[in-house]
Every structure is written in C-alpha cells, then in structure tokens.
Amino acid sequence: MNPISTPRKSDVVTRIAPEHLQGFGIVTSCRDIWAYRSTLMLLTRRQIRLRYKNSVIGLAWSVLFPLAQTAIMTILVKYILGSGPPNASAFILCALLPWTFFATAVLDSAASVLGQTDMLRKVYMPREILPLATILANLVHMLMGIVVFLIYRYGLTTVLSSWPGAPPVDVAFLPLVILIELGIVIGVSFVVCAWTTFYEDVKYIAQICLNAMYFLMPILFFAENIYYSERIPEGLRKIIYDFYLLFPMTWVITAFKQMFFHKQNIAPVGHVPILSAPLDYRIMAGSAVVSVFVALGGIAYFNKVKWKFTERP
Amino acid sequence: MTYETSTQPLAIEIKDLVKDFRVYHRSYGTLKGMASDWFRSSLLRQAVKGYELRRALDHVTLSIPQGQTTALIGRNGSGKSTLLAILSRIYLPTSGEAVLRGSLMSLLELGVGFDDELTGAENVFFGAMVRGLSSEEAAARYNDIVEFSELGQETMDLPVRMYSSGMKLRLAFGIVGNLDSNIILLDEGLAVGDIAFQHKCLDRLTEFKAQGRTIVMVAHEMPLVHQFAERVIWLERGAIKMDGPPDVVVPAYEAMLLDATDAAKA
C-alpha cells in the first residue's frame, strides 16, 4: 500500500444557502471566478488544444483561416463588385480579426455549458468559467491573427504599395479596444450561453443573427461609406453614421481600421478619394462605458439562472 | 430523534434544508407545448405552470461532528443523493442552510467529473485543481494516484472516453483516495470495481476513518453499514425518519423493507 496523504488542517468554511451562493450577483460571480482562476487557465489551454486535436498543422489553422477568408473576400470586393479601395485585402483582414473573435466566441460559448452538464453534476466549479474559458481561447486565436496582420501591414504592404511603415500613434489604443471588445463578447456570450442551455433553438437563432451582422457590420465596407453615401439624403448622413457607430461591435471593427490605417483613401479605385475618419476618442470613451455595462449585465443574468443548469429537464 | 456521539466540533451543519425540484410536463420545451400553454393561459385563462414541484428534501436538520462516519440509507428517491449533491454545490437549495467546515471531496454517481476528451493524466490534474490544489500539489500526488488506480502509464495517456466504467471508477477513487480533504462524501460508488479493488477502497476508507476525516456515504449494502458507520441516518420522502447507531436503525429499516415486500406481494 502506498503512503497516504494526511488531511490538511483546513479552516475553509463553505456556506451553502440560496442567498449566499447567488445573492450578491456580480460580486459573487467575480469572487468565484477569481478563486478558480487556475482551473480557468487549465480549461482555456484545453480549448486551444482540442480545437485542432486531429489536424496535421494544428494551431496554424487559426492563422490560415482568416487569411483564406480574406483572399476570397478580396476577390469578391475588388474584382466582382469593384467597390474595394486600394489594398482592400489589408482592410478586410483588419476587420475580420475582431469580427471572427466575436462570432466564434459567441457561438462556441453557446454550447460550452451544455456540453459539460455531466461534469457540473459531479463536481462544483463556478459555471462562469466554462463560457469564459471558451472566450479566452478565442481571444488567443485573435491575438495570433493580429500578429500576422501586423507583419502583413507593416512588412508586406510597405514594400508592395509603399504605405508608410511607421504605425500611427493611435495603435497605442489597441489593448483598450481589445478590452472593450472583450467586455461586449463576455456580455453577449453569457446571455446566449445561458439561453442555449435551456433551449437549444437559441444556438440556431444566434447563427442567423451572426450571419446578418456579418453583412451589416463594416467588414466588406467602411462606416465612412455611410457618411459619404450619395443615396442617403444629405441631412440624414451624419445622424445615420453616428447611430451606426453606437452599436459597440460596429465601433470596434471601425476602430480597428482607424487605428491601423490613419487617414487612408478608402474610395474604390478610380473614384474621387475619400479619407477614413480618425479615431474618435469620445466614441471610444462611450463604447468603454457601454462595454462595461454589457459585460456586467451578462454576468448578472448568467448568475441569476446558472443554478438551474444542472436541473434542466 | 437525534443522536450525537461526540463532543467534537461540527464538520457539517445542516439547518432546515429544503429542496424542491421542478418536474416538467412532457411537452415542456417543445414549440407545441409552448403554443398550447400560451393558448390555455391567455385565451382560456387557466393557470399554466408547465411543471409540478416535487419536494426532494423536506426540512432536514442535521449536525455531523468531525471524524464521524455516517451512512445514509433509505429507499430510492428518498433524498440521499440530493442531500449529498447539495452539500457538493451541484444544486442550489430552495431554502435553509448548510455549513461545511473543512475542505470537501465528493464522489457522486460514479465519477469525479471527467472530461472525456482529456487523457487520464490530464484529468488527474484537472480533478485535483478543480478541488483547490495547485498544479505543484497535483503533480506531487500524481504517482500515488496512478499507483492506487493500477491503470499503468499507457492507459493514463489515453483519453478517458476510451475507458471502461471500471477503469473510470479506479481513476476516480484514485483521485478521491489521494487528496487531503477533511470531509468526504460518497454516493454508492464502490459497486462497479472488481472484488480486489473494492477491498482496496474499503481499506483506504478505514485509514481515512483512523485519520479522523469526516465521511458521509450513501449505502445500500447493510454489512458495509455495520462495518463502517458509527451513525446511520434513514431518510424517507426527503425527511429524517430515524437517526442512530447501526444496530438500532438498520434492523428497523430492514423490517420496513420486509413489510413493504409483503405488502407488494399481497
């Protein structure tokens, strides 16, 4: 018989009561997530590794995938629609990175609790760490994509189209913009995850909504296109443009482009040049506030229903 | 009827614990069910809930001192598993309160919560870390766990989805048997392994008892109850029917089972 460990003198006191386990809402959630941070990191690593478990080139897919998508969309925009600005591929890749993070994080975390209800029936862990691990894993994929984009933007395009090599000052805001996006992703994912756990239909509804957003978000075009559109009455352009940027994800994608392409020509080749708008710090401050509220709202809602996950019929 | 054997400080203190489960109607969650519920509630003005409440625990109050081994007995559906699940924070109690003093380890429904896609080795780390160990502490116990479960290093590198239920139990008990929690909850976990492994687990339980750990187990085999438990709690319909030493409670429980069998035959 191998030697047996002696019980630790433990002064942990666990209180199990409805008002204690759930009562303080967001505070309870955050306290529990922090206490289980090492498990969260373990689950995040698992997610990153399992995604390409049986693939030959593994993690390289998370770089190849956006590149392939960019190539297809560049052909569409540049040669079929003829609406792309010079260097359309750089703009598209830049917009795709934050968008792909949002879309895949929401869809993946939708199933994150549903796939682990068996585990939740056997051992306690804060339910929040399941969608959170999925979100963090997708964040890592985006960060890898951003590295590739930086090489593309400040290596290749400087040589090929003699764009200025030095990044504009606004790039310093990149971490903040990513945090703003992370807040939005957490808020939306937590709500979608909770709903999907009760009604699997929600996953399909989310898929439809994401499809619609894919075309309505400024990925294949620019938010500034609305501002300069000749098909919108002149008095309405500014209002619609501002309203459009009120949607946090619209702003995040636009901000990504404005950070890396400071005052660049975004008119289709052969048209009168129009310059992209500079990064607007007021909208950024507003988006940061919205992002915090979206995240806290999502966590609060999740906390309200999370104990029903193990009791679902 | 209450029963205290010890003046030790309390490890588990349960006050007035109630758990109601929702038993949903068969049509719950379907579009048709929602449509008919909506029709009945809004047009016919009937009260529609879509579910009934079933009381699984009915005002249970209970104190277990440190170092005591308690067996929970009772027929199926009497609330034994629900009680352990609430102590393990699987379900939220409807009302009431429980306080646990010391770290908790539970083995519920054959498993400590394995991730089927991870290998056995990774699950050992996951299982240990989700119970509050650091990765260094988990690594320090890894060899003991593998040795106890007798699975061998090749098996430990396979994903758990390829394990048989016996292998899963071995690994689960290997983890449970090598962590240093003060409170151990066991839900009829031992029936699957072979006889030799069962004996090994029972020996480990005896050592745990000797170390003064608090053990609460759901038991269906009465010899096991006599062998291990100092105290037996008989649950019926979610309430404590009897609480006392094994030689008092077990005969009463068996007499009731006999009566029930006779009644079923008649």
What does it look like?
The complex is a heterodimer of chains A (313) and B (266). With 313 residues, chain A is mainly alpha-helical. Chain A has helices spanning 18-22, 26-35, 37-51, 61-81, 88-110, 117-120, 129-161, 174-198, 201-216, 223-227, 234-246, 248-260, 281-305, and one strand spanning 13-16. In chain A, helix 5 runs parallel beside helix 8 (174-198) and helix 12 (248-260) crosses helix 13 (281-305). The longest helix of chain A has 33 residues, at 129-161. Chain A is elongated. The two termini of chain A are 44 Å apart. Chain B has helices at residues 31-43, 80-87, 120-129, 135-149, 152-156, 165-176, 195-210, 222-228, 246-265; strands spanning 10-24, 51-65, 69-73, 95-101, 104-107, 183-187, 214-218, 231-236, 239-244. Chain B is built from 9 helices and 9 strands. The model of chain B has no long low-confidence stretch (mean pLDDT 85). In chain B, helix 3 crosses helix 4 (135-149) and helix 4 crosses helix 6. The interface between A and B is large, with 42 and 60 residues.
Largest interface: A-B, 42 and 60 residues
Terminal Cα separation of chain A, in Å?
44 Å
**Strands across the major sheet of chain B, in which order?**
5-6-7-3-8-9
What about the largest sheet of chain A? none
Low-pLDDT sequence parts of chain A: none
Largest sheet of chain B: 6 strands, mixed
Mean model confidence by pLDDT of chain B: 85
Structural class of chain B: alpha/beta
Overall shape of chain B: it is globular
SSE sequence of chain B, one letter per element: EHEEHEEHHHHEHEHEEH
**How much of the residues of chain A is beta strand, in percent?**
under 5%
- How much of the sequence lies in strands of chain B comes to 25-35%
The SSE string of chain A, one letter per element, is: EHHHHHHHHHHHHH
- Structural category of chain A is mainly alpha
Low-confidence stretches of chain B: none
Radius of gyration of chain A, in angstroms, nearest whole number: 22 Å
How many individual helices of chain B? 9
The total of beta strands of chain B comes to 9
